[in-house]
Amino acid sequence: MSVATDTSFTHFTRTAERAANQVISAYSTSFGLACRLLGSRHRQHVRNIYALVRVADELVDGVTAEAGLSYQEQCDALTHFIDETHRAVKLGYSSDLIIHAFAQTARTAGIDHSLIDPFFDSMRMDLGERTDFPERNAAPASLRFDADAHDGYVHGSAEVVGLMCLRVFMRDENIDDADAIALEHGASRLGAAFQNINFLRDLADDTTRLGRSYLGTSDHLEDRDRMEWVSTIRAQLADANAVIPMLPRDARAAVRSALALFQALTDRIEQTTVDELYRHRVRVPDTVKAGLAARAVASTWMELHR
Q1: Where are the alpha helices (DSSP H) in 59-176?
Q2: Residues 6+ apart with CB under 8 A from 289
Q3: How would you class 204 by CB atoms within 10 Å of its CB: exposed for 0-12, middle for 13-18, buried for 19 or more?
Q4: Residue 150 has what pLDDT?
Q5: 3 state SS of 202
Q6: How far apart (Å, rounded) are the C-alpha atoms in residues 110 and 112?
């Protein structure tokens, strides 16, 4: 009896997916937990998206600088990463395992330039490569994003990532235009909420290590600014929560779990002064995360069995 074996391409792709999974386990316990709640047809695809996003984010957030690359070499490294991603999505292959895994997901779910390009535009902004900046040979000493720059950055760095995941979830679904618009709005709002919460959580690191201010304020955030952002985030989370019942059944518990975690983080940020935010990162204990995930699963089960 002959035993079927994987083709070389399938074996390579599975290896790439394992590499993507390692990125998640190394960088985000919260995201890893939410992914485990996804149905099997979505889980690996979302992990592949996260891995590419995380590697690109690390590239612009100091890894290349700590490796000794000059500012121009950092920019060149990002350009190479972008070009290789586009090439892999077009051809269906990359020798870079993380990019290869993402390309398989992009081709399966219809993730195209309309979502990929804005993401990389935001990564360029992190390096100070905005088109309205003069060409320079050294990294800017600091970056401050005004309201328009903030909105553009959030769209590229977070909203389109939510839309990428939505394309994974909805790739086998037939929905009308009105439902598609509602779901896209909810996915964008959830991505924006996640990013704005992380801006508040990362105030200390962004300002002291990276010299960046994403929230369109003066040099130092005030408590009234913090409360305005908390209000904005709550509205974004509410919009996202409203469309969860429209998602496929095997995606709802995971999205609910992630949303619940960020609601908990928002509660903690609301109770934390700005001075404290500048000193340490707000976190939710692992035991609380587990409880939130369990409640998300139970809520989804009850929704489906009414």
Answers
A1: 64-66, 71-91, 97-109, 113-126, 147-154, 160-170
A2: 29, 30, 33, 261
A3: middle
A4: 94
A5: coil
A6: 6
- Residues 101-154 pLDDT 10s: 999 999 999 999 999 999 999 999 999 864 444 444 556 657 888 889 999 999
CB atoms within 10 A of CB 220: 12
Q: What is the pLDDT of residues 248-266, one digit of tens each?
A: 999 999 999 999 999 999 9
DSSP state of 144: E
Paired residues of 110 in beta bridges:
none
Number of H helices, E strands in the chain: 15, 2
Q: Please give the Cα distance from 125 to 140 (Å, whole number).
A: 11
Residue type at 277 in one-letter notation: L
Contact call for residues 270 and 227 (beta carbons, < 8 A): yes
Whole-number Cα distances in Å, 170 to 108, 109, 167, 248, 284:
11, 8, 5, 7, 30
Cα–Cα–Cα angle for 128, 134, 136, nearest 5°?
65
